[in-house]
Amino acid sequence: MQDSFGRLIDYIRVSITDRCNLRCLYCMPENGIDLCGHDEVLRYEEFIRLCRIFAGLGIKKIKITGGEALVRKDALHLMKAIKSIEGIEQVTLTTNGILLEEYVDELVRIGINGINISLDSLDNSEYRKITRVGDVEKVKAGLKKALQYPRLKLKINCVPFDGDKQNILDLVALAQNNPLHVRFIEIMPIGEGKQFNYLKEDSIKALIEEKYGVMRFCYEKLGNGPSRYYSLQGFQGKIGFISAISHKFCHECNRVRLTCTGYLKTCLQYDIGVDLSALIRAGASDAMLENAIRKAVLAKPMEHSFLQKNISCEEQAKMAAIGG
After folding, report:
1. Which of 10, 163, 175, 298 maximizes the CB count within 10 A of its CB?
2. Which stretches of the chain score pLDDT less than 70?
3. Residue 238 falls within a domain, yes or no?
């Protein structure tokens, strides 16, 4: 599939639940969000059907996300089924890591290609402040167990805040001492994220280089999206940046998103797309769904406008409901 700007769309993030066992400051209010009803969320057979259709349209890579995907019952059975779909080359998981130690053996057994662990601090008190309810020791235990599988591609996703210098350097050290990549993601001004200032990529790079030396750009393709990676001397892994605000990468965007309620979002900022759940439950054929998906992708916006105000069709949902 190509959109109207010639971008090849071969990657989709699939949210399978809006439920989460954390309450991160930039993602959810302290008391959580208004959760979708059981009947609103796609059933597993509906997810599988849509993923087969996406594969037929050229989607090759699927990221399973939430909320927290591992809190949904039998989530691994769904991942296994998606992994077996012809044309799907990679199925990866984004998780906060709280339940990872329990599930990592099975995730490897079903052939998951990679795991991204959302981790904003290694300090338990700071981690608790950011997540409100989390225990970082559980995440560390899950990461330690995952590192026992050399073929499993591991990435740490950190959303840094102003004043987080030591947190940043602590996380960078993970890539020095382990075969994994650490990525810093600018806070997206969506939902709860609007109340925070994002920490720019250039500021983080300067901090890292002050301690570890020159960062050299890595031309090797290390992920499915537009992340930019750098190498440091003596490091086992790379340092990556997803800087949608300070280094806009919309011109190379290759992804769309499917929410847990079956809404196909073509750009994170906007609420435009197509309600595939409504079509499915109205009896739409595969051909009708394919046509709806193609039309939505053709209408994908050229770029986000996060630094502008009063944007029409701007997404109002929290990140947990979108599939962050």
Report:
1. 175
2. 189-196, 198, 305-324
3. yes
